[in-house]
Amino acid sequence: MNTNQVTISTFTIERILPSSKDRAFAAWSNKESKRRWFACHDDWITAEFEMDFKVGGKETNLVLTPSGSRHSLDATYYDIIPNERIVYAFGMYVNGMRVSISLVTVLFESILEARTRMVFTEQIVLLDPTVKDGTSKIEIQSREKGTNAGFDRLVKELS
């Protein structure tokens, strides 16, 4: 096993949200709102969620899968411009083992009254040295799919 290997990838998701830029940003910055929509799978249970939305603030999220796995996120906010942009970094852990580190940029742009373009970009470093090229591609696709599922809930939250 080569412990020095990592897989680096980036994906971008663009969504048109059915709300003003203020409401779209609030869905990210309000703890109760974000807890409702920020989940990758309908059958995963949020066991813990904490959020201190400010530059230098932290966010932690622990979810339990139906099989009993524990997936957690540990984030720090690095840049926040209200209603314009959020930049944060996070580590992702499965059963206590860190599997990835990501840098995320979320941009908000008003395009019409009550319509906001949200552009989400995640730069991922997969840390698991056992992940091979084909498997890492599947892992990245799974992450993008889960992120899209959360954004489906975000659209419902704002509708």
Automatic annotation (TrEMBL):
Protein origin, superkingdom: Bacteria
InterPro entries found in the cross-reference section: ASHA1/2-like_C, START-like_dom_sf
CDD domains given in the database record: SRPBCC_CalC_Aha1-like_7 (cd08900)
Domain Activator of Hsp90 ATPase homologue 1/2-like C-terminal: 20-158
Family: Belongs to the AHA1 family.
Protein's name in the database: ATPase
